[in-house]
Amino acid sequence: MSDSPVLGPALTGTLVCNNLDTLLNAYVDYLSMSVLEAGEVSAQQAAIWGAPELVGARFAVLASETEVCWIRAVEDTTAAAAIPFKQQGWMSLEVVVEDVDTLATELVDSPFELYRPPADLDVSDDIRAMQVIGPAGEVLYLTQVKGPVPPFEIPMAKSRVDRLFIPVMCCGDRDAATTFYTDFPHVKEYKFDTKITSVNAAYGWELERKHPVATVQLAGETMIEIDQIDAAEPRPQTEGRLPAGIAMISYEVDALSDHSLVWFSEPARISSPPYNGRLAACCRGVGGELVELIERN
């Protein structure tokens, strides 16, 4: 019997923006993405998300040069940009890249605001990352992995900007938020306190200030990072819509029926990527975050 995590990999981050064309141009022109599919949100899709007001909204799925669909963008013309680092829910998308220093130079005068320049991480000199803020207020951690970083199972890039490998969540209670993910069999957690420079800078705190953090190891060389930021406020919720910025993260699982979760609607099969005809459903995690699960086969 396999002891591989039942949850994972983390597949796709869904961004909600008020101008789809602006966002697509940014990702295509500066992050080497291409539009794999574009259209309008169907009633079935909106029902899965618990967002009936988004029926007919424009959306697009983007893929990297390695054909990984790690971004889906949905246009909501009423959405205000998310406030980086200061709201609970999905706070950032960590994406593995080939050369973070070269990328930092290439993003000068781009739609991506450089928030923190490239720097080696405390956890390992083999991880070097920078943070940028995108058109919808989304935070991207653009990370170069130079070699193995045990005990974590994380990938090295196969293209200039490759794929999502760590969605980062902001919450008010690390331990409670982590339980949602550790309830999936064979998922490993690591808990520690560490400084989060980008967060500390956003609040004007001392850069060395430490916060409770958890990492959850998933399948497919992906993880979830859960940051407890006591000063963060709940993300504004709009009835029948998705929250602005990073609205949800999609993951693979073996079978939806294996998990006793409260879905927004009955699971359904959808033809567009990242589903590709597979069964999917959406729910809310303990930290208030939106989680979409897609059956592996």
From TrEMBL:
Protein name, entry field: VOC domain-containing protein
Top-rank taxon, per record: Bacteria
InterPro entries associated with the record: Glyas_Bleomycin-R_OHBP_Dase (IPR029068)
